[in-house]
């Protein structure tokens, strides 16, 4: 039954990174993303793109953790973007207000260009 | 137009982590049999996930069970309807208070969005709640794309 989330990171330059997620973003998956994101912030990453191409399900607890990550990145003067969302995940992000504080891009190329990655 | 339920399913699920995925998959399979479009199924799945999480995390039920009933109905002309009832035997909750929650960055109120998500993804939602438990009835109507 467990839908374990997998995370991979591609560093882009000194201050950028793209994080790829695969699987269910619930409380456990959200914490995994947070741990990796905080490691990257500690390593001076200030422009972080989350590519959710292989994530088809999220829940509100997982999204609340993503919002905490955004808050921390904003506190550090950085920014977070998301790309490759399913229509339903995009809609859920909008419902929870996440889209007000992080940029959402249709694909990785557009995101990387806009975020300088 | 005939609108009798063609598919029915009842599940009794333990309140364990990720059990919401099992409920969502069951409903999704039933909806696919009726030809419901994938985006409608995804919306329904996300609503079910939130309803099951609410029951698991907040009901305080002594029996630690979620009771799920799903019916599927073909409405004709490529349309289908899924009715879902999710019941717990917990302590109930204040629906008005739950609906009024709004998250803001910089506050501690990041949780409690389940009901808003459910109502946004489903076509109809009704809630019956008391000190003896809660039932949330959700309806999704899907129409095949041309």
Task: Describe, in short, the structure shown.
The complex is a heterodimer of chains A (117) and B (146). With 117 residues, chain A is of the alpha/beta class. In chain A, 42% of the residues lie in helices and 26% in strands.
Features:
heterodimer, A: 117 residues, alpha/beta, Transcription Regulator spoIIAA, five-stranded mixed β-sheet, 5 strands, 26% strand, globular, B: 146 residues, alpha+beta, Heat Shock Protein 90
How are the SSEs ordered, and which strands pair?
The complex is a heterodimer of chains A (117) and B (146).
Chain A: E1 6-12, E2 16-22, H1 27-42, E3 47-54, H2 60-75, E4 79-83, H3 87-95, E5 103-105, H4 108-115
Chain B: E1 7-14, H1 19-33, H2 38-58, E2 65-76, E3 79-88, H3 95-100, H4 114-121, E4 124-130, E5 133-143
Antiparallel strand pairs in B: 1-2, 2-3, 3-5, 4-5
Write structural notes for this entry.
The complex is a heterodimer of chains A (117) and B (146). Chain A is α/β, with parallel strands linked by helices and 117 residues long. Chain A has a domain of 60 residues: Transcription Regulator spoIIAA. Chain A has 4 helices and 5 strands. A 5-stranded mixed sheet of chain A has the order 1-2-3-4-5, sandwiched between helices. In chain A, α1 packs parallel to α2. Chain A is globular. Chain B is an alpha+beta fold. Chain B has a single domain, classed as 2-Layer Sandwich (Heat Shock Protein 90), CATH 3.30.565. In chain B, strands 1-2-3-5-4 form a 5-stranded antiparallel sheet, covered by helices on one side. In chain B, β2 and β3 form a beta hairpin. In chain B, α1 runs antiparallel to α2. The longest helix of chain B is centred in the first third of the chain and has 21 residues. Classes of the chains: A alpha/beta (117), B alpha+beta (146).
């Amino acid at each position: 039954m467990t839908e374990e989330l997998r995370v991979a990171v591609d560093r882009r330059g000194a201050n950028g990174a793209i994080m790829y997620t695969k699987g269910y973003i619930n409380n456990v998956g959200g914490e995994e993303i947070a741990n990796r994101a905080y490691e990257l912030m500690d390593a001076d990453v200030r422009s972080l793109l989350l590519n959710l191409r292989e994530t088809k399900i999220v829940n509100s607890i997982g999204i609340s953790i993503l919002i905490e990550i955004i808050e921390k990145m904003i506190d550090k003067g950085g920014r977070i973007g998301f790309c490759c969302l399913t229509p339903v995940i995009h809609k859920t992000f909008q419902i929870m207000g996440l889209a007000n504080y992080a940029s959402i891009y249709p694909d990785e190329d557009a995101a990387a260009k806009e975020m300088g990655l | 137009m005939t609108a009798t339920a063609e598919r029915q399913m009842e599940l009794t699920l333990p309140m364990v982590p990720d059990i919401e995925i099992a409920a969502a998959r069951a409903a999704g399979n039933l909806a696919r049999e009726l030809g419901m479009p994938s985006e409608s199924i995804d919306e329904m799945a996300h609503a079910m996930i939130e309803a099951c999480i609410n029951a698991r995390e907040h009901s305080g039920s002594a029996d630690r069970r979620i009771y799920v009933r799903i019916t599927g109905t073909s409405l004709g002309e490529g349309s289908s309807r899924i009715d879902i009832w999710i019941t717990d035997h917990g302590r109930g909750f204040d629906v008005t208070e739950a609906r009024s929650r709004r998250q803001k960055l910089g506050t501690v109120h990041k949780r409690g969005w389940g009901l808003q998500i459910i109502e946004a993804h489903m076509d109809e939602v009704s809630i019956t709640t008391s000190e003896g438990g809660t039932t949330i009835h959700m309806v999704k109507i899907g129409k095949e794309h041309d």
